[in-house]
Here is the input.
Amino acid sequence: MSTEKTSGVAQTTNIRNPLHAIAWWRHDFHRMFSARVREAQLGFRHTWYLGALTLGTFTIQVGTGLLLMLYYHPSIPQGYADMKDLEFVVSSGAMLRSLHRWSAHAMVFLVFVHMAKVFYRRAYRPPRELSWVVGVFLLLATLLLSYTGYLLPWDQLSYWGTTVGASIISSMPIIGAKLRFYLLGGHTVNANALLRFYVLHTMIFPLVVIGLIAVHLWRLHQDGGMYEPDEQGKPILPDHIPAEDELFRGVENEKTLSYRELLFREITGIEALAVVLFTMALIWKAPLDELANPLHTPAVAKAPWYFTGLQELLHYFPPFVAGVILPGLIVSGLFIIPFVPWFDGVTTSDMCRWVRSKTARSLTIVVALMALSALLIHMHAWDAMLPLWIVVVFLCTSSGASKGSSGLRSWLSSRSFSFWIMTLFLMEAVVLASVGTFFRGAGWSWVWPWRG
Ligand code: HEM
Here is the structure.
């Protein structure tokens, strides 16, 4: 017999008895997933299971990535030759590579949509601030995971796409050149860069993502499962933390165990997504351009779609502004969302009068939008103007709404500062990425996609 201490209370277990040990582990497993949640919290409409689907794509990435590692050598030109072998020699190799590629795209897409969904539900509100902050790190880690994988095929597309990314990094003041040097292992994208990207892509970032996901889900459990506000819009907190002597009994007594209900539905969703991605991989092969040639710059070197918005900004602004200041502002904005109640339209009596006033908030938005418009007009960034004008039109529509008015106008007028900022950011991201991906040709000039 041995005595173990769990959560500060002595529990007697016989660890030499396998049945006892299994019961203990089972109990721990239940406790881990047994967030006491109301049935209503598990509804599809809350999350659209987007977090779980993101997790599903990451799992597919790890599975297919491990198999790809069996065939891939991170050296030049062998890496490229391995891609060709996967396509023409290895059985199901093209499908494997395509599945890895499409699930990477799906992961980036889903992580953005998951973030937007969480934001519009205000699920970042206390006590879920840490889940949100860890989520922002996950977003960045996902982008870095994709970016480092982009170079591995060592074709023209990946070589020049990575070169564009590396030049953005070097535009950072003071540390930029050093950071680029350490990332590439030299001054140019070469064999050292390929090896470093390989290690980052297959070891470092996957481990970082796994660690962050573990913390993300653990926090979710600690915070009482999915966010659900009460009638006053306040989050419902876990109302019952079982006493130590209730631990075993508590599991049975709980109304709804989230893992029993939710896990089944989410796994079904992941399986459906896997079927879609598998079908896509069978129909569309992942692209492979010619072998990378550092002496031949292609007419247009495009980054992957989730960075073409950034490339579009680089077309208008100097690299330091487009590559450092703007992304820096966006990322810091994302981090502080849960910590500035004012952004959220929440005011407390200890805030100064100016901050509490709705007029002051509206005035801040108007001044910020006018300054941004002036800047975009000056830079002739017309595509970036479009989302801004749409937001201005909606703001003007909502401005005249009185207390009694109903419908869209009153809904818009009750939106918070952070709602407008996030909506503008998402619309800019979609418009700029679409223009960068479909409407830019040689020398980053405008082309209509149907004219080639
Ligand atoms: C690899 C990326 C990510 C994974 C695998 C992931 C996974 C999950 C999962 C499984 C959930 C449970 C609900 C659901 O299924 O949707 C969840 C909830 C949540 N996630 Fe994520 N997430 C990721 C990225 C993010 C990002 C980028 C953010 C925000 C910046 C975020 C913020 C949150 C928050 C606040 C919740 C709680 C939602 C609620 O209470 O309703 N996550 N996440």
User: Anything to note?
Assistant: The chain has two domains: 34-229+250-303, 318-452. The longest strand covers residues 2-6. The radius of gyration is 25 Å.
